[in-house]
Design brief:
By secondary structure, this protein is of the alpha+beta class. The protein is built from two helices and four strands, in the order E-H-E-E-H-E. A hairpin with a 6-residue loop joins strand 2 and strand 3.
Length: about 80
């Protein structure tokens, strides 16, 4: 299982519709508004990092109202 966090910047006034659209995407596990540099922190999971990049992120990028995304992949240390 692969996990990543997306830090998302949203156009003003589009916050609610972006969050609603993201929740419908397969692989999105949580969407939380946050303070700081970005507007929304999204947790995504997939079978592999490749799946996250090719499927989940390509769907996220289609959501209208998103200005920018930053992706942080989670790595587990043994």
């Amino acid at each position: 299982m692969a996990t990543a966090y997306l830090k998302i910047d949203i156009e003003t006034g589009k916050e609610k519709e972006v969050k609603t659209a993201l929740k419908k995407i397969n692989g999105v596990k949580s969407t939380d508004f946050v303070t700081g540099t970005h507007d929304l922190l999204v947790s995504v999971e997939g079978k592999s990092y490749e799946e996250i990049v090719t499927k989940t992120l390509s769907e996220v990028r289609k959501v209208k109202g998103i200005k920018k995304t930053v992706t942080d992949f989670v790595f587990e240390w043994a």
